[in-house]
Design brief:
globular
C-alpha cells in the first residue's frame, strides 16, 4: 500500500471548522499526516460491496423478524415492538450507516467486519476533514470517494418523497420539522449531529437543535422543544442505551411511533443491523459469500477467530484467539456481560510499520463515502483517522 506524507491541518484551522477532537489523550494527532492512495477500481469495489451488503442486511433483518430471533441477537425486549413498527412502515427511513470493512487495497479481497447502522460517527472527518487535507496540500480535492454531505442531503429529501427520485420534495414538503439532539457535554457527538442538521437544512427542512435533556416527550402528543412540536427527531444516542438506561423513554417512544406522532432517526430497526449477532444470520443465509467471514454464536473450531460483544462499540471487550482456542489479545471494556459473536479472523491491510487499516464506507441510500482508521489488530477508541485519495 502506498502512503503519501502530507502537511497536517493546523489545530487552529480544525477548531475553526468545528473539529475539536483533533488530539488524543496521549497528545498525538487523531488525524494522520499520511494519505492512503487507492485506485478507481478500489473505490468502485468498496462502493459495490457496501451496496450488496446493504441488500443482504435487509434480507437478514426480515429473516430475524419473520422467525422472532430478537433474543438471539441480544435485542432488549422493550424495543421489539418498536423495531417491528418501524420496519413495517416505509416512513421510517434509514438515514445513514457505516460499513466497517477489511481489505480492499493491493488486491486484498473485501470482507465485512460489522455495520454501524444506528449511530455511526467519523462523519465530520470523512466528509470535511479529509477533503480539506487534500485541498491544503495542493491535491485535487475531488479525487476522493466522498459524496457524504450531498448523499445525506438527498436522503433527507427521501424522508418526504420515500422514493429514489427526490425531485418532488418541494412539492410534497409541508413544513414538517426535524429536531436534532445529542447528549450535552460530548463535543464530537454534538458536532456530528449539527453536521447532519446542516444537511437537513440544505435539503429544505425546518430544523432545530436541542440537547436530549431539553426535549419533552409525550405519548399522546409527540416530541417538543420550547413548546414547538416536531414531526421528526434525530438522536445520536444508541437505541440499546435508551432501552437499558432510559426504559421509560423507550416506552414513550414506542407509543409516539404507534400513535404516529413523530418519526425517529435512525429508526429502531437499525439496531438489528447494529447487533453483531446478525453476522451469524448473514452467514446462515449466505454461506461462503465472498464478502462475509464465517460467524457463529459458538467458538469456531480450528480457526483463528475474533470474539466480539453483540452491542459493543470502539473495540471494547473484543478478543482474538488462535487456531487452538488460545486467547492472544483482548481489549478491556464495559460489555463483558454482553452476548458474544465469534467471527473468523481476517487480517487487515497493513503498512510497513504493521499498522492495520480498516475501511469505513458510509451508506445513505447507496454507498457514498470512504475513510480509513489505522491502529492495531483491534481498532479501539485511539485508532487514527486516515484520509484517502484516488490516483
Amino acid at each position: 500500500m502506498f502512503l503519501k506524507k502530507v502537511t497536517p491541518l493546523t489545530k487552529q484551522y480544525l477548531e475553526e471548522i468545528g473539529f475539536e477532537w483533533h488530539t488524543d489523550a496521549d497528545k498525538t494527532n487523531y488525524v494522520s499526516d499520511e494519505i492512503l492512495e487507492i485506485s478507481q477500481d478500489d473505490a468502485k469495489a468498496y462502493y459495490d460491496a457496501a451496496n450488496e451488503l446493504y441488500d443482504m442486511f435487509v434480507a437478514a433483518a426480515q429473516h430475524v423478524i419473520d422467525n422472532n430471533l430478537f433474543h438471539e441477537l441480544g435485542i432488549p425486549f422493550n424495543l421489539v415492538d418498536l423495531i417491528k413498527d418501524s420496519w413495517e412502515n416505509d416512513v421510517h427511513w434509514h438515514l445513514y450507516g457505516r460499513f466497517d470493512l477489511a481489505g480492499g487495497v493491493d488486491g486484498k479481497p473485501i470482507k465485512l467486519i460489522e455495520f454501524n447502522a444506528d449511530t455511526p460517527t467519523s462523519v465530520f472527518e470523512t466528509a470535511i476533514v479529509q477533503w480539506a487535507l487534500l485541498k491544503q496540500n495542493g491535491m485535487d480535492e475531488n479525487s476522493q470517494f466522498n459524496d457524504l454531505f450531498d448523499a445525506l442531503v438527498e436522503n433527507f429529501k427521501r424522508l418526504i418523497t420515500l422514493d429514489d427520485s427526490t425531485q418532488d420534495f418541494e412539492k410534497l414538503y409541508n413544513g414538517w420539522k426535524i429536531l436534532f439532539s445529542s447528549i450535552a457535554g460530548n463535543k464530537e457527538d454534538e458536532t456530528t449531529t449539527r453536521f447532519l442538521q446542516a444537511a437537513a437544512n440544505e435539503a429544505g427542512f425546518n430544523t432545530e437543535f436541542a440537547y436530549v435533556d431539553e426535549v419533552v416527550f409525550s405519548d399522546e402528543d409527540g416530541i417538543f422543544y420550547n413548546d414547538e412540536n416536531y414531526e421528526f427527531w434525530f438522536k445520536l444516542i444508541p437505541w440499546e442505551q435508551i432501552a437499558v438506561d432510559e426504559g421509560e423513554l423507550a416506552m414513550i417512544l414506542k407509543n409516539i411511533i404507534q400513535n404516529q406522532r413523530a418519526i425517529i432517526l435512525n429508526p429502531a430497526y437499525t439496531l438489528l443491523f447494529q447487533s453483531k449477532g446478525i453476522l451469524k444470520v448473514l452467514w446462515d443465509l449466505y454461506p461462503d459469500h465472498p464478502l462475509l467471514l464465517e460467524s457463529s454464536y459458538e467458538p469456531l473450531i480450528g480457526k483463528k477467530m475474533v470474539k466480539k460483544p453483540f452491542l459493543g462499540r470502539e473495540g471494547a471487550n473484543v478478543a482474538i484467539y488462535d487456531e487452538n482456542g488460545k486467547k492472544i489479545l483482548e481489549e478491556d471494556g464495559e460489555y463483558a456481560n454482553n452476548k458474544f459473536l465469534y467471527q473468523e479472523f481476517y487480517e487487515f491491510n497493513k503498512d510497513k510499520a504493521g499498522n492495520s487499516y480498516q475501511a469505513g464506507v458510509f451508506f445513505a441510500y447507496e454507498a457514498c463515502a470512504l475513510g480509513y482508521r489505522k491502529g492495531g489488530e483491534i481498532l479501539g477508541n485511539f485508532a487514527k483517522f486516515v484520509a484517502h485519495y484516488i490516483r
